């Protein structure tokens, strides 16, 4: 089904993204990222140069200024994932959907001036650090503290599972600045790589997204100047997270739909090419019927995701709607990619084939950004009238 969400500006931008991918995403590059466990900085700088990261950075700070038009980010996600570069899509997503928005929407003028121009070029990469070894879903259970000191804060604690954790230069870190676990006991502080006492722990060895780093972080008496308090106001961290989480969840929904679509496209091409019992695999009725289900699921995924993008662009995507999108799309993605692997036979299990990578990458979509159980909790609480 043809999608109606894009206009010619988005399609022109798609050409820019495709051109970038043709130049910078090769099999050799993918293997290099997988071996290193991270995307190289030169590729991120090239993405900055091509104008495909930092999309929402306002023009006055050197960005593309596409503030509330998430369709451009969607084009990037679609094309990068279609190019079989899930890890690169992950690295772009952390920069544009998880780090940049905290500065664009909540940063002080000084913070914007200082960081956004270099985030738009890829010289400065950001990350978001909420999760701790003992607290993931239950964010108010975090133990990382930021105690007031002369001119700033002293931070102690640890974070884990932080995407871009080994490569980022600045980290939006969720910390406790107050007692207890009331929402106003938390703040967001910007920690800079290289600050004394801030250590990047080991890169975690993951099931998927092999070419995108996920790391542990530890903080021992890290002095963070007051000017690095996001928004300049203490006690707002929980609300600030809540403001951006719908975008994070929408971005996962987009990635899920894009991966499902790419998987189906690869599967159609593969089953047209592969022969068994003297005919193409796509000529078996079982394959054709499965593909009919797959393409229909992809159509429905996009119809739903496109609607959510429109709501987001209008400033109307609620936490509950974003939670629905996140759990529903990622579960369909899992089903679609599982069938796609099956239709590839043994080759579907071999990492040279993009479907194998996409299958492994997809699994975490049901876990991060808030688990799908937490998403169902958010949706059903509202219905039950429980806050
Ligand atoms: C590859 C990867 C990248 C990540 N990137 C980041 C990042 O960049 N920044 C960051 O801050 N975090 C990141 N995370 C962390 C991720 O968001 C958490 O892993 C996730 O929120 C779950 O937290 P947890 O692992 O502590 O699981 P837990 O909270 O311990 O959950 C364990 C199980 O219990 C279930 N559960 C928990 N509470 C409830 C409940 N109330 N009702 C029903 N079931 C419940 C969960 O759904 C899950 O099935 C990343 C994780 C991974 C794996």
UniProtKB/TrEMBL annotation:
All residue ranges annotated as the Acyl-CoA dehydrogenase/oxidase N-terminal domain in the record: 8-123
Signal peptide as annotated in the record: none
InterPro entries: Acyl-CoA_DH_CS (IPR006089), Acyl-CoA_Oxase/DH_mid-dom (IPR006091), Acyl-CoA_Oxase/DH_mid-dom_sf (IPR046373), AcylCo_DH-like_C (IPR036250), AcylCo_DH/oxidase_C (IPR009075), AcylCoA_DH/ox_N (IPR013786), AcylCoA_DH/ox_N_sf (IPR037069), AcylCoA_DH/oxidase_NM_dom_sf (IPR009100)
GO molecular function: flavin adenine dinucleotide binding; long-chain fatty acyl-CoA dehydrogenase activity
Cofactor: FAD
Pfam families in UniProt: Acyl-CoA_dh_1, Acyl-CoA_dh_M, Acyl-CoA_dh_N
All copies of domain Acyl-CoA oxidase/dehydrogenase middle, residue ranges: 127-222
EC number: 1.3.8.8
Protein name (record): Long-chain-acyl-CoA dehydrogenase
Originating species: Microbacterium marinum
